[in-house]
Structures are given as C-alpha cells and as structure tokens.
Amino acid sequence: MRTVFQVVATMVAANAAVALAADAKAATSKIKAGAAATAADAKAKASEVKAGAKTQATDAKAAAQEAAAAAAKKVEEQKAASAAPTAPAAAPAAPAAAEAKEAVKDAMAAQPKDSAELAGTTKSLIIPESAVLPESVLRFRAIYAGAKSEKGYDGAGNKVENGVKISANIGTAVLEYGITEKISAQLLIPYRLDGKAEISSKEKFIEQNLRAPVTAQVDLQVNQLKSGLGALYTNNTSFPAPFTIPGTNYTVPANTGIKTYVDALRAQAISTALETTYEQFKKTTEDTKFQKGLGDIEIGAKYALSTVKEPWFDGVPLYTSVAAGVRLDSSNYTEAT
User: What does the pLDDT look like over 270-281, one tens digit per residue?
Assistant: First the structure.
C-alpha cells in the first residue's frame, strides 16, 4: 500500500515530465521558424542578384548597339564626303584602314634590329623564281625531278599508248647570287641519276612507232618495181611459164598474176622488216638503260623589272623579271650497268 508521500512524488514527477516535453516542443518550433526565415532571405537575395545581372546584360547590349550605330554613321559620313561634288578645303579624315596600315608600319619600324635582319634573311630564302635575290645574298637549292610515262603523241598530236614505258630521275643543283638589288646570277647543274625504257606491248609499239616508217621504206622500192612493169602489173598479167621480172631476182610462178605476186611480195617485205626492227629495239632496251651523268650546265642572269613588296592580290606580292643565259655542252653521259 503506497503512502501519501509516494503518491505526491509520483504526481510531481509526472508534472515535471509534461513541462519538459512542452519546453522541447516550443524550442523545436522556434528552430523551424528560424530555418524558414533564413531560406526566405536566401531566395530573396538570389532574386535580387538575378535581376541585377539581367539589368547589366541589357545595359551592355544597348551600349553595343549604340557603338555599332555610331560606327555605321561615321562610315556613311565618310562615304558622303567622298561622293560630294566639291571637296571641302580641309583635308578629309584618313580611313580606318589607312590608320591601321600606318600603325603596322610603325610597329615594324620599332622591331629590334636583329629581328629585322632575321626577317629579311628568311624572306630571301622563300622568294619565287620571278624575283631576284637581295644584294650579297647567296642561295643554294637542290631540285629533284622524276618522270614516268606510258603514252606518247602520234603525228596528229593525239595522245596514244605507244607500247613503251619510260622512267627517269634527274637531280639539279641551283646556285644563285644577288649582285645588286635588281640583278642576280644563277648557275644550274643537272645530273641524270638513272632512267629506263622498256617495251610493254609489242603490238602497240609496232603500230605507233614502226609501221608507218617501215611501210614507207618498202613502198619506195615496190613503186619502182610497179613502174617498170607498167601494164603487166595494172592488168595482173599471168604467163603459162614462170616469169622473171626484168632487172630483179624475183620470179613470178606460172599462171600467177603479176599484180597478185607483187602485192604479196610487198606484204611479206613489210612483215619481215617490222619483225626485224622490233627485235633490234627490244634488244637495245633490254641490254641498256638510259645514260646517266652530268647534263648541260646553264649560266644565266636575271633582271628585276618591278619589285612590288606590298601585297597586291589576296596577300601575295607581285614580282616581274627577265632572264637570259647560255647552255654549255658539258654532257658527260656513261652507260648505266
């Protein structure tokens, strides 16, 4: 049986717990309210920053539009001044392009001396053939050229396959020296490194290279024979016995027309001559290559007609010059093995 004291103690403890719970609930409410207020402040600050950025962008765009309009107006004023029938007494303002050009010239003039000299040396190395070298500048170049072909040209100038493959490799040493700012001298020394020619098609080679000259040579003799026979050839006369053509060793068989015999003789002569000539060419190309060695040395000079240093078309300067020279008979070919 609990005493009165115990009951009272229990009630006091219960009241204390209730009070503590109420205090905790109140504290939690205050924390939530503070957090909500902080979030609201942050959202408001973000809105203000966004609005400020938008305003700045609008101001910048307006300023750019004003600057563009002012530039366009200035250009229109310059065009109007140029198109006016009577120019004002005062000198017109220089165009923006001319001002920029002068600024570039000033910047180039302000370069260190060593840089200017280096730029001039580099330019001397890359100037084209149409320009002369600067005074006292020496330039050496080595040029290689390779050629390969399987076609040629017929008598009418048409490109045809002539049945021959040709290849050649040539190296050339070029030495050039600037005597003055307008005159330079040049020495050109070619050297044939190697080369080869071979027949790739017998039929094409014969048709494009041999048939015409061989046929003309045979016909020269056959026409003389026809002329001596006269009507015997024209009428294709035949005899019951073998007939020896006068002044020749040719004998027409019995009962064979003279024209028929002579035409057959011509065809056989052409065929034999073509085959013989072809074999000679074939042996030549198989046994030897192109000759190799020093070529004809050339010595010449070049004179500058104009030296437009400023770009005249799409950033490319214009050079014009004339040249003359002599070719020395210095070829010293040896058969390649």
Answer: 999 999 999 988
Question: Which of the four pLDDT bands, split at 50, 70 and 90, describes residue 24?
Answer: very low
Instruction: Give start and end residues of each alpha helix (H) in 84-112.
Output: 96-109
CB 157 within 8 A of CB 266: no
Contacts of 42 (CB under 8 A, 6+ apart): none
- SS3 state at 288: coil
pTM (2 decimals)?
0.41
Does the structure show a pLDDT above 60 at 200?
Answer: yes
**Which amino acid is present at 221?**
Q
The residue count of the chain comes to 337
Neighbours of 192 (CB within 10 A): 19
- CB distance 324 to 301 below 8 Å: yes
Mean per-residue pLDDT, 134-155: 86
Question: How many Cα atoms within 13 Å fall on the side-chain side of residue 296?
Answer: 6
The strand ranges marked E within the chain are 138-153, 159-178, 183-199, 243-244, 251-252, 292-294, 298-313, 316-327, 332-334
Strand, helix or coil at 142? strand
